[in-house]
Amino acid sequence: MPEARSAPSLAKLHAFDRALLRLAGKMGLCVEADDEAVARRKLSSIVDHLNHKAEWVAVVHADGNGMGKVFERFPSLMAAQGVRLAADYVRRYRALSEGVDECARDAFRSALEKLRGAGWSAGTDEPPVLPLVLGGDDLTVVCDGELALRFARDYLEGFTRLAGEHDAVGGVLEHVEDLRGLGACAGVAIVKRAYPFHRAVHLAGELTDEAKVVKKKLGQDRSALSFQVLFESAYADLERLREQQTVDGGGTCLTGQPYVVGDGGDAEWARHRHWRDLERQVAALTAREDGGLVISAAQAHELRSALFRGREAAQSRFQVVSTWLGKDAVQGLAHDGSLFWQDGSTHRTGLLDALNAAPFLRSKDAS
């Protein structure tokens, strides 16, 4: 029976097939013309999974650091290198732009290949990762929530490394004062499948902006990631969410974000804020012994509840768990014996981040 559809809906349906093939090309699935049918089937299975099967869906947004500053300084850089002809200037400008685009594309494909190698397929022919924007230094993908944090970390590491190695990118930026290289920042919003998509995109953008503080603290050649697992269905405003993670009259913050991905150097700000710090705490929360979790779900819930009662309550609960299980069993949760570290006038902890990330960072065999 005929179904009434609006002109915009019909236009979207008409463009859908071509859009899938374009995305397949970006993902490296459709190199030859003969691959089109296979690529279309693979991407259709990903779309179906994200629309109807995934329990958690994530929006990952990543953005290069300070590209505006790079292009702003480009004329003076070319002048300092003796470039006078317009044709040479345009050629180098195009090489830089295309080089950044190439780094982003290759970093995406590398991160996707790592997911393939780890066997993350969720019943689809390919890991359920769907790029929506992949051009220049911008990346926006929708993926299964279980893949999001690993994918984002691998993408940032790959982009930073490739940009540093690329002659037209790193080879140019090493001559620019205060730049040294090109990093990137990412925001990951993990939400339930039915959550409004545009709100998840907005939250991912806010998280990316939060991660951008790494430029001021460590330099724009470093990379960082912020994430949020949204358990509620209300409108997600990052400022409100971070306020909810602040206790003790503002003296204690229950998040360590953003987390530095890749080399963080020896700066004090990066201490306890490296991605490996988060992974260490997740490893402690998900460690198993004799077929069961070392830190039980009930104990993890008690630690989470204590965090929102303040620093003293959380530290007391941690001491109880430490005494019950033994210090060796829970040492991965602590920083020098404490759940908290001093950040200026504020105490911080990454435990809440780890509790939220644990279901999405646990090993495939443990899931």
UniProtKB/TrEMBL annotation:
Keywords: Antiviral defense, Nucleotide-binding. Pfam families: Cas10-Cmr2_palm2. It comes from the Bacteria. Residues 57-216 form the Cas10/Cmr2 second palm domain. InterPro entries: Cas10-Cmr2_palm2 (IPR054767), Rev_trsase/Diguanyl_cyclase (IPR043128). GO terms for molecular function: nucleotide binding. GO terms for biological process: defense response to virus. This is Cas10/Cmr2 second palm domain-containing protein.
